[in-house]
Amino acid sequence: MLSRSMYASALLSTLAAAAPAPQVSGYTNADAGFPQTPSSLGTPASVFGPDSQVAASAVTTISGYPRVSANVTGATSHGPYSGTATTTGAVTANTTLATGIAPLPPNPTATYYNAQGVLLNPAPAPYTPNGGLGTNGTEPRYMVNSDFDFESIALGLYQEWIELDLFNNGLAVFSEEDFLAAGLTAEDRAYIAFMAVQETGHATLLTNMLGEAAPPQCTYDYPFTTVREFIDFNQKLTRFGESGVWGFINHLDSREVGQLLAQSIATEARQQMSFRQMLGLHPMPVWFETGIPQSWAWTYLAPYISSCPENTTRLAWQNFPTLHIINQANPNRFSPNDTKDNEVTGQRIIDPSNSTLPANESCVNVNVTGYGCGPAIAHNRSEPLTFPGKLVNLTWDVPGQAVGPNNSYVTSTSAGAPSFVAWVSQLNLTYTPLEVTGANTGYTFQPASEVYQGDPAANDTMFIAITDSDLFLTPFNLSMINPHVVALGLYQAG
Ligand SMILES: *[C@@H]1O[C@H](CO)[C@@H](O)[C@H](O)[C@H]1NC(C)=O
Ligand SMILES: *[C@@H]1O[C@H](CO)[C@@H](O)[C@H](O)[C@H]1NC(C)=O
Ligand SMILES: *[C@@H]1O[C@H](CO)[C@@H](O)[C@H](O)[C@H]1NC(C)=O
Ligand SMILES: *[C@@H]1O[C@H](CO)[C@@H](O)[C@H](O)[C@H]1NC(C)=O
Ligand SMILES: *[C@@H]1O[C@H](CO)[C@@H](O)[C@H](O)[C@H]1NC(C)=O
Ligand SMILES: *[C@@H]1O[C@H](CO)[C@@H](O)[C@H](O)[C@H]1NC(C)=O
Ligand SMILES: *[C@@H]1O[C@H](CO)[C@@H](O)[C@H](O)[C@H]1NC(C)=O
Ligand SMILES: *[C@@H]1O[C@H](CO)[C@@H](O)[C@H](O)[C@H]1NC(C)=O
Ligand SMILES: *[C@@H]1O[C@H](CO)[C@@H](O)[C@H](O)[C@H]1NC(C)=O
Ligand SMILES: *[C@@H]1O[C@H](CO)[C@@H](O)[C@H](O)[C@H]1NC(C)=O
Ligand SMILES: *[C@@H]1O[C@H](CO)[C@@H](O)[C@H](O)[C@H]1NC(C)=O
Ligand SMILES: *[C@@H]1O[C@H](CO)[C@@H](O)[C@H](O)[C@H]1NC(C)=O
C-alpha cells in the first residue's frame, strides 16, 4: 500500500508541475488556490486514539431475512463433468405457436408527445402526474408474473450462484502472496470476499421472487490458473451478467421484480468495474452499458457449469455455437498488437487471456504511464487494446455440441449462411461484412461507428456474433436477432 500511495503522490506532483491544459473554456489554469492535500496543518497521524465518545444508545439488531446459502468457508469441488446426461435440451412449452416472432409496426398507442412541456391529462392526485405503471396504489407483489419473468430470473439466479462460488474460489485457490504479486493487497482480497457475500443476498432475493422451483447452486469448472486470469474471467463474467439483465429488465411483466433486480444489478455493475480496475483496464471506456438477450447470457454462462443437483429447474433459453476470436487482444501485454493467435487459456467462450507471458512483454509490473496495467483506479494505455479497422480473425463451432450442467444442453442455430459480424456495445448494433475464408473460418474489420459524436461504439468488454443478415435492430428489440445468429463470442475491445 505504502509504495502504491507514494507512487500516486509522485504522479500527482508530476501532473501539477506539467500544468495540464484547461478542459473548459473560461478557465485559464489549474490554479484553484485553495490548500490541497496533504494538509499543511501539522504532520500526518501516527497515533490513532483514544477517540472521542459520541452520543449513542444501546440498540438491538433487527434481524434480516435468512439467506438461502450457507457461508462458504473454503474451496468446494470443481472440475469438468464426466457423467452422462439424463435429460437433454432446453425446456420447451407443450405448445409453441409459431416458428418466430414477426416484426410489427410501432405500437399504435405509443403516441404521447408533449411539445409545450405542460400536463396534458388530469392528475390523479396533487403532485402526481398522470401515467406510469404500478402507480395507482396497488400493493406491490414481488413475484415473477409470467413464463418470461420466471425464465429470466431463473437465468439471473444461475448467474448469481456462479459468482458466489467463483469469487470465493479465487480467494481459496490463490494465496495472499499470489495476489500481492498481481498488485492486489489483503484489503483487495477482503473486498472480493465482500462481493461474494453480496451474491448470497442477490441469490436470496432472486430465489424468493421465483418460489420453490428456484434453481440451487451447482458445481463449476473454471478456466484460470493465475490471479490475473481469475480477475480477467471475473470482469468478463460480470460483464455478460450485467448486460444480460439490462437486456430483459424492461421487458419483465412484474415491475416489482424489475425494481428489486435493478437495485441488485447496480451492485453487479460496480463489481464489473472493480474487476476491470484490478486488471488495470480503463474502468468504463464507454458512455452506455449495453444489453443482450437472455439466450446470449446463457450461452456465455453454460460452459462453466459442470453439473447441478438432481431436479434442478432447467432453462428455456438457447445455447449458440461458440465464436472464437483468434487474435483476441491480451490485456496483460503492454503492446496488445503483439498478442499471439489463440492467446487464451482454453477454447471455451469467455476464457481469459493467458497471463503467463515473458516478463519483457507483460504490462503487469510495469509502472510507466501508458504501459503499466497493474491494479489502478484508471490507466491510460498508449497502445489501445484494439482499434477501428483492426483485422479480426474468427473461427466458429458447428452446432450440436453438448454444453452446460451435466452436458445436458445442446448448441443450436436456425440461421442461414454466415454473412455478417454483429457488434453489440453501448446503444448500438453495428454490422461488418464477414469474409469467409474456409470452413467455419473468416475475418472482418472492427467498425468505426460512433454512438454520439466523439464516442466510438466498439469499446469495453463487448459482444459479437456471426449472423446471416444485417437486420436493423435497436436495444429494445435486440432479441429479434436470435434466429439469425450463427455463433456468439465475447470481444475484448478495451
Ligand atoms: C516502479 O518501477 C521502478 C523501476 O522499475 C521500481 O524501482 C519501483 O519500485 C516501481 N514502483 C512501484 C510503486 O512499483
Ligand atoms: C455467515 O456470515 C455472517 C456474516 O459474516 C455471520 O453473521 C453469520 O453468523 C454466518 N452464518 C453462518 C451460518 O456461519
Ligand atoms: C405438458 O405435457 C406433459 C406431458 O403430456 C404433461 O404432463 C404436463 O402436465 C403438460 N403441461 C402443461 C402445462 O399442460
Ligand atoms: C392499476 O395499475 C395496474 C398496472 O400497473 C393495472 O394492471 C390495474 O388494473 C390497475 N388497477 C386499477 C384498479 O385500475
Ligand atoms: C427428483 O424428482 C423426482 C420426481 O418428482 C423425485 O422422485 C426425486 O426424489 C427427486 N430427487 C431429488 C434429489 O429431489
Ligand atoms: C500460456 O502461455 C505460456 C507461454 O507460451 C504457455 O507455456 C502456457 O501453457 C499457456 N497457458 C495456457 C493456459 O494456455
Ligand atoms: C522478450 O525476450 C525474449 C527472449 O527472452 C525475446 O524472444 C522476445 O522477443 C522479447 N520480447 C520483446 C517484446 O522484446
Ligand atoms: C491520458 O489520456 C488522456 C485522454 O486520451 C490525455 O488527455 C492525457 O494527457 C493522458 N494523461 C497521461 C498522464 O498520459
Ligand atoms: C498497432 O497496429 C496498428 C495497425 O497496424 C498501427 O496503426 C499501430 O500504430 C500499432 N500500434 C503500435 C503501438 O505500434
Ligand atoms: C477505448 O477507450 C479507451 C479509453 O478511453 C481508449 O484509449 C481507446 O482508444 C478506446 N478504443 C477504441 C476502439 O476507441
Ligand atoms: C487472419 O486473416 C487474414 C486475412 O484472411 C489472414 O491473412 C491470416 O492468415 C489470418 N490469420 C489466422 C491466424 O487465421
Ligand atoms: C448508435 O446509437 C445511437 C443512439 O441510438 C444512434 O443515434 C446512432 O445512429 C447509432 N449509430 C449507428 C452507427 O448505428
UniProtKB/TrEMBL annotation:
Does Signal show up as a keyword for this record? yes
Top-level division of the source organism's lineage: Eukaryota
Q: Which InterPro entries match?
A: Rds1
What are the entry keywords? Signal
Q: Where is the signal peptide?
A: 1-26
- Alphabetized Pfam families for the sequence: Ferritin_2
**Which PANTHER family does the entry mention?**
PROTEIN RDS1
| Record protein name field | Ferritin-like domain-containing protein
Name the source organism.
Answer: Lophiotrema nucula
